[in-house]
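Run log, item B.
One chain of 72 residues. Sequence copied directly from the ordering sheet:
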Amino acid sequence: MRITLEVPEHRAAFMLELLRSLPFVTLLGRAAKAVDLDETAHLLSSPANAARLRAALERDKLGQHETHSLPD
């Protein structure tokens, strides 16, 4: 079976990594080069995320750091 996917550029790297990790998937031909994701640009593209990012950067300048960890 052949399946063709059209993926937004900002998700291409993730999708290629995911597909390459599946042993039963074979990528034929030359895959389009994934664009490197600029996380800051992505966060600034949403007004809500942009406000939170700016607030976090301001807190960082003031020395108010936050540390988050995931449980083991």
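Observations after the first pass:
- The chain has a mean pLDDT of 81.
- Residues 47-61 form the longest helix (15 residues).
Flagged for discussion on Thursday.
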